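=== RUN LOG ===
request id: a7f3
mode: sequence -> structure
chains: 1
length: 110
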Amino acid sequence: MLDEVTYNQFVSAAFKRILAAADALDPDVLEADSTGDMVTLTAASREKCIINTQRAVRQIWVAGLGQGIHFSYHPESSSWRDDKGKGLELFRFVSDVVRGICGEELHYLG
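=== RESULT ===
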């Protein structure tokens, strides 16, 4: 499990990357809000994708399209992967949820 300082750094970087991708879209299509431990992406239809910290277990939780998935950081691949072994990756999953709620694709930098 990641130590708290490293976890906070990785979460901050992930949230910044998601927010930058969301901010590149028209705000009339997708609105992005951040409140420290949570990023909320809201489509014009009012459907949401919520990305939240799960500090006690050092994970990121994503809810959208009727499901919630926990992601753990995997140092060997330098990526956030679902904790159930389904092969889901955090940024791809968030992009899939956004496409499902507003029809647009998130494009991440870096």
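=== NOTES ===
The helical segments are 4-23, 90-102.
The two ends are 25 Å apart (CA to CA).
=== END ===
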